[in-house]
Amino acid sequence: MSHSIKNCGILIVAAGQSKRLGSPKQLLMYEGKTLINRLIDIVKETVDFPMLLVLGAHAEKIKAQLTKPSIAILLNESWAEGMGNSISSGLQALLQKNPAIDGVMILVCDQPFLKRHQILSLLALQEKSGMPMAACYYAGVMGTPALFHTCTFPELLALKGDRGAKNIINHNIQEVAKLQFEQGLVDIDTEEDYKKLIKGKE
To answer: Which domains does the chain have, with CATH numbers?
Structure first.
């Protein structure tokens, strides 16, 4: 059975505390923009889909620095429970505003090498494969950005705690189309990660 997505939504999950970094990673500067504004701009330049940003820790600080303040935002008061909680509550809010959505792409802001190409390629790959899911593949694992057909929504909406969408992907590996994105492995968790990233740009 082919799974076609006609009305895709975008869910940006940016609710974490950045505990290991010591400051909100969403507000780190890269290529002249904060990581969160950079991602929002890339999405808006690439697709015209309904988008929701899930914030939690540091929400007010991040909101104050958004260059596209018109973006729909969900403040997840239970952000400390983990990524799964942010995904399920975010998808619920996205569906309430846009009930016609039959697919969702989940993105995080600390993949600095993400560009328009990965978003478009993921959409094209899912359409061509007809699989219920398509996800980026790097260093032997699958992760974000990831695209989910509406048939997976019950599982996404049931996520809790630290159990993120990766669990759904791993439990249904035969139903996932893979998009190679080696640089997707680079994310910013520590000051060291950030220094390495900036050094690479010099």
So the answer is: 8-201 (3.90.550.10)
Residue keyed to tokens 């505990």? 19
Query: What is the C-alpha separation between 98 and 100, in angstroms, rounded?
Result: 6
Cβ atoms of 167 and 82 within 8 Å: the answer is: no
Please report, for the chain, how many H helices and E strands are present, in that order. Answer: 7, 9
Report how far residue 98's alpha carbon sits from residue 8's, in angstroms, rounded to the nearest whole number: 10
Check: CB of residue 62 under 8 Å from CB of residue 18: no
pLDDT tens for the chain, residues 1 to 202: 789 999 999 999 999 888 888 788 999 999 999 999 999 999 999 999 999 999 999 999 999 999 987 899 999 998 888 889 999 999 999 999 999 999 999 999 899 999 999 999 999 999 999 999 999 999 888 999 999 999 999 999 999 988 888 889 999 999 999 999 999 988 888 888 889 888 876 5
Give yes or no for a cis peptide into 145 (omega within 30° of 0): yes
DSSP letter at 184? Answer: G
| 3-state DSSP assignment of residue 9 | strand
Tokens of 41: 């701009």
